[in-house]
Amino acid sequence: MFMERLQKVISNAGYCSRRKAEELILKGKVFVNGNLVKELGVKVSNDDIIVVEGVTLNKKSNKEYYLLNKPRGVICSVKDEKGRKVVTDLIDTSERIYPVGRLDYDTTGVLLLTNDGDFVNILMHPSNEIEKTYLAVIEGIMTTEEIYKLKEGIIIDGEKIVPKRVKVKKKELNKNKEKVEITIVEGKNHIVKKLFKAVGHPVAKLTRERLAFLDVKGLQSGEYRLLTSSEVKRLKQLKKK
Length: 241
Known about the structure:
Layout (H helix, E strand, L loop, with lengths): L3 E2 H7 L5 H9 L3 E3 L2 E3 L5 E2 L5 E3 L2 E2 L8 E6 L27 E2 L7 E8 L2 H8 L7 E8 L4 H9 L1 E3 L2 E3 L3 E8 L4 E8 L6 H8 L4 E9 L12 E3 L2 H8 L5
Parallel strand pairs: 9-15
Antiparallel strand pairs: 1-4, 2-3, 2-5, 5-6, 7-9, 7-16, 8-9, 10-14, 10-15, 11-12, 13-14
Helix pairs in contact: 1-2
């Protein structure tokens, strides 16, 4: 009988990401065949009944992949304790989908949502170095030295972050602001804002323009579309051997 790790089965069923599944297991939120599981490493079969936070998993759910042009003021989650609108509220589906990574409350642009755990793991795993390109409107005008420092890499939370590309797009001298395009592979929270803050230029506005080869051209803020099968295939091929 084929057996898989519990957290992977939960993720593949579209309940949440694999990392979140591990958190739920450790918090005592998962039952297998009526038995509480609170440790990682447990393997289950397709015949096992898995209940997560009171919800019985449907392990035969259809895989869905959405590209959303995330608007400002929407939480990048499947639920919010304060009752604010979340990104899954914008997608019309009966499947339990969740966002691939996070964008801040006030950050807009490219966001993927799916119920395919393996797909999420490919895009989120650091070793695959999936490029993410942002357009940042920053306070002030960067000097040549500050641009060089940014390109060379900044220590953020004990780790050196080296952008793949940094390009000044437009200087708004009358507003004392600057538009800068930056491409990174890291997926840590607030990483772009921390990079610019480190060189003395807080981010006033942030948009994710591209994730890998995907952009939101043709989609208004809050609009979404299904990924094509060829797009899904190309994204899965980004997994490094």
